[in-house]
Design goal:
This protein is about 35% helix and about 15% strand. The chain is an alpha+beta fold. The strands form three sheets. The protein has a six-stranded antiparallel beta sheet with strand order 1-2-3-4-6-5, covered by helices on one side. A two-stranded antiparallel sheet has the order 7-10. Strand 5 and strand 6 form a beta hairpin. The chain has eight helices and ten strands. It starts with 13 loop residues before the first strand and ends in a 14-residue tail after the last helix. It has two domains: about 100 residues, 2-Layer Sandwich (Phosphorylase Kinase, domain 1); about 170 residues, Orthogonal Bundle (Transferase(Phosphotransferase), domain 1). GO terms for molecular function: ATP binding; protein serine/threonine kinase activity. This is Protein kinase domain-containing protein. Keywords: ATP-binding, Kinase, Nucleotide-binding, Transferase. Pfam families: Pkinase (PF00069).
Length: about 280
């Protein structure tokens, strides 16, 4: 099990010199993630540490270096910053900016559907990040609620499977998280070429979960998006947002809006909201 491949750290333990573990944030198959205190920065940070079983795996080591390099060259308000890394110590790791806030998945699980005065600015902020990434030639490939931190602005995290556009187009195997993978991510080649439009599908699936409080597609059978239509959105969802989400979830990549299209459509919807809101902006002036 994933939890068996762990360093056995606890709060107060030293992750590496100058980095003290505070709280286990979970992580994934390849990394442990810890809220930690960085003595050099004198601030809380997030540390992603390769799990013991992946330290000697060349694919995992390349993945660590790749994610660090990507984060180091990208700069956007909706992307967390990388502060430092060490790929030569006993526990290879990198240090990320800590954004205070729950992830979207946890928020929806605890409180249900996100109200429109939060949903619409969230959608705009995520579209902004994707617009930037695609402009830099990067496809995220894992847009999902657990990778959205509800800060101000929202943060899209985890570039561990992100690829350059040309690399994404050459994929011949599935990459991503099952319920949030565009059809072409599930079956590259057979259902289309993987590219920026796949992130728009992931955005649509993420916003569907936020707007409705449940997923657009069932978890079983696996990859039901290959043959099923998304579930209907509840009637309480903002009509314009519902239409936009449905178009993001089009099975044909060519029919999906671009992130800029999404942002442009959201602007008048946000303008129609009550003025007392904490976030949201326009990409055009």
């Amino acid at each position: 099990m994933m939890s068996d491949d762990a360093w056995g750290l606890a709060g107060g333990d030293e992750i590496a010199p100058g980095l003290t573990a505070v709280k286990d944030l979970g992580g994934g198959t390849v990394y442990e993630a810890w809220l930690a205190f960085d003595d050099r920065l004198h601030a809380p940070v997030v540390v992603k540490v390769l799990r013991p079983g992946h330290v000697d795996d060349p694919v995992s080591r390349v993945g660590l270096d790749r994610e660090v390099a990507l984060l180091a060259r990208l700069a956007h308000p909706g992307l967390t910053r990388v502060f430092s890394y060490d790929d030569e110590g006993a526990r290879p790791y990198f240090v990320l900016e800590h954004v205070d806030g729950p992830n979207l998945s946890r928020l929806v699980s605890r409180h249900g559907a996100v109200p429109e005065h939060q949903l619409l600015p969230l959608a705009l902020e995520l579209a902004s990040v994707l617009h930037y990434l695609h402009g830099e030639g990067v496809v995220h490939l894992d847009v999902k609620p657990s990778n959205v931190i509800m800060g101000a602005p929202a943060q899209l995290v985890d570039l561990s499977v992100a690829l350059d556009v040309d690399e994404a187009a050459a994929l011949d195997h599935a990459v991503g998280s099952d319920e949030y993978m565009a059809p072409e991510q599930c079956a590259p080649g057979e259902r289309g070429t993987v590219g920026p439009a796949a992130d728009v599908w992931g955005l649509g699936a993420t916003l569907f979960r936020a707007a409705a409080g449940f997923r657009a597609f069932d978890r079983e059978p696996r990859w039901s998006q290959l043959h099923d239509e998304p579930k209907p959105l509840p009637g309480f969802v903002h009509r314009g947002a519902a239409d936009l989400i449905r178009r993001c979830l089009d099975a044909d990549p060519a029919q999906r809006p671009t992130p800029r299209d999404v942002a442009v459509e959201l602007e008048p919807m946000i303008a129609g909201l009550p003025s007392a809101r904490l976030s949201g902006f326009t990409l055009r002036r």
